[in-house]
Amino acid sequence: MLIALNILMFIAPAIVSLVIHDYLRHGEVKNIRKVILYIIYLFLINLITFTISYIRGVKGFDFETMSLSYRLKYMGLGCVLGFIMPFIVCLITEDIITIGGFLRYAKRLFNDLKKYMPYAIWAAKADLGAEVASSYLNWMWWLIEPLCMMLIYTLIFGYVFKAKEDYFPIFIFIGITMWGFFSRSVKGSVDTVRNGKAIITKVYMPKYILLLSKMFVNGFKMMISFGVILVMMIVYQVPVSINLIWVIPDIIVLFLFTFGVGTIMMHYGVYVNDLGYITGIVLQMLMYLTGVFYSVAKRIPAPFGNILENFNPVACMISSMRSSLIYSSAPQIALLAVWCLISFILIALGVFTIYYNENSYVKVI
């Protein structure tokens, strides 16, 4: 088992890089070139990872005394680098991928957002209005649903399973609110293009604008829930500090990460009809690994708890939010910055994919 993990910690990050490199080249990389690129990634990633480890005090590899925690962290850092490295290598090795090309796509994205953002906001308002138009309690459902979920989980985990986290109702409400935004947005992204068939078959519109509209709806509901959280903090007399300002960056990173994942999922949702079912199952599993109603770092045995919290982006953001709101402490700023960078990479991959394939979506649906 340890031998396999020792090998995996070195080779897995390079595989991640090779997959993304081939993705950027639309699967056109020949097999011989793949082998050469894999060797390059294997060398570069492990060189950087080992250098960072050396600076932090690890002077060599002693596999007999090496802890499981170090192996997992080494592989996790390598995979993060493996996510970033292909963009740099592609700029150097691929003639059709240039800085000018990235800038053109970035400019096109900026112009399209500026042009179509009013529609996204209007569509979000229309969806919100239609959602409560025929209900007796109207907009109150946006409060009732998360409050009921909070009460259920508080009863089950707070009293039945004896959870000991401070301010547990607020603790669990933060997790439900943030996870709800992420899961609803990602699951909804799969069918976004198909559901928007009536629009995209008649007029041109960047397809991710439809996703943004749905995210604005979910984001509005999330903001209402955070308003309830602030009221609960006053009722429970939760002490606050200047670290409360980290709430804003945390929400921004969550939005960016969700948009990045959503753009990729909405592309594959056009071609894979069963992806919605698969996404639902995966999200259900991830919910229990994200710490929605418990602390991942405290409840999962070391070293897996801390590693899972750091390398699960939504778990990291939920933990950061709880630190800022409940515990008056600053989040892991460097880790939040890394996930912000990865979010931009995901957005770049997703938007690049949509622009490249959007003409074929109408034919498929």
TrEMBL record:
<feature type="domain" description="ABC transmembrane type-2">
    <location>
        <begin position="137"/>
        <end position="357"/>
    </location>
</feature>
<dbReference type="InterPro" id="IPR000412">
    <property type="entry name" value="ABC_2_transport"/>
</dbReference>
<dbReference type="InterPro" id="IPR013525">
    <property type="entry name" value="ABC2_TM"/>
</dbReference>
<keyword id="KW-0997">Cell inner membrane</keyword>
<feature type="transmembrane region" description="Helical">
    <location>
        <begin position="167"/>
        <end position="186"/>
    </location>
</feature>
<comment type="similarity">
    <text>Belongs to the ABC-2 integral membrane protein family.</text>
</comment>
<feature type="transmembrane region" description="Helical">
    <location>
        <begin position="275"/>
        <end position="296"/>
    </location>
</feature>
<dbReference type="GO" id="GO:0043190">
    <property type="term" value="C:ATP-binding cassette (ABC) transporter complex"/>
</dbReference>
<feature type="transmembrane region" description="Helical">
    <location>
        <begin position="75"/>
        <end position="105"/>
    </location>
</feature>
<protein>
    <recommendedName>
        <fullName>Transport permease protein</fullName>
    </recommendedName>
</protein>
<feature type="transmembrane region" description="Helical">
    <location>
        <begin position="215"/>
        <end position="238"/>
    </location>
</feature>
<keyword id="KW-0813">Transport</keyword>
<feature type="transmembrane region" description="Helical">
    <location>
        <begin position="139"/>
        <end position="161"/>
    </location>
</feature>
<keyword id="KW-1133">Transmembrane helix</keyword>
<dbReference type="Pfam" id="PF01061">
    <property type="entry name" value="ABC2_membrane"/>
</dbReference>
<keyword id="KW-1003">Cell membrane</keyword>
<dbReference type="GO" id="GO:0015920">
    <property type="term" value="P:lipopolysaccharide transport"/>
</dbReference>
<feature type="transmembrane region" description="Helical">
    <location>
        <begin position="36"/>
        <end position="55"/>
    </location>
</feature>
<dbReference type="GO" id="GO:0140359">
    <property type="term" value="F:ABC-type transporter activity"/>
</dbReference>
<keyword id="KW-0472">Membrane</keyword>
<keyword id="KW-0812">Transmembrane</keyword>
<feature type="transmembrane region" description="Helical">
    <location>
        <begin position="333"/>
        <end position="356"/>
    </location>
</feature>
<feature type="transmembrane region" description="Helical">
    <location>
        <begin position="244"/>
        <end position="268"/>
    </location>
</feature>
<feature type="transmembrane region" description="Helical">
    <location>
        <begin position="6"/>
        <end position="24"/>
    </location>
</feature>
<dbReference type="InterPro" id="IPR047817">
    <property type="entry name" value="ABC2_TM_bact-type"/>
</dbReference>
